[in-house]
Amino acid sequence: MVSEAKPSSGNRLSDIQISLLRLFDQNLSERETMELRKMMMDYFDGRLRNELDEVLEKKKYTESDYHRMLSDDNF
Fold first, then answer.
1. 28 pLDDT higher than 80
2. Is the residue at 47 inside a domain?
3. How many whole angstroms separate alpha carbon 75 and alpha carbon 72?
4. Distance between CA atoms of 24 and 36, rounded to whole angstroms?
């Protein structure tokens, strides 16, 4: 399961935030910036999909469950 990020204390930046600021301060071209953003989006998309797969495996939903979820307000 995806681990939870530790909340930062006050207004202090986390190590990853500082690293990202340093990375984007490297005078990257617009193309390079977009490539980095896409890489980060792909990374988090993958994590989210993995977590979703785990939940679906645990819940063992069937196709009829999905139809009920879409049509029944009290599911």
1. yes
2. yes
3. 6
4. 9
